[in-house]
Specification:
mainly alpha; 2 helices; globular
Length: 53
């Protein structure tokens, strides 16, 4: 299955809106280095039905 990321056309109007786009794109591409660089060490991700990351 291919991941599709849909971004509103006004996303470029505010720089703070670019981070979620960049983060979700990195996550979809398994760019964990980017994700780790931009997340705090104290964040706990829990995926329903799977292990804690």
């Amino acid at each position: 299955m291919m991941t599709q990321i849909i971004i509103p056309s006004d996303c470029g109007n505010a720089p703070k809106k670019n981070f979620p786009k960049d983060f979700y794109t990195a996550w979809a591409k398994d760019d964990l280095d980017f994700c780790k660089k931009h997340l705090d060490d104290h964040i706990i991700w829990e995926i329903v039905g799977q292990n804690t990351l």
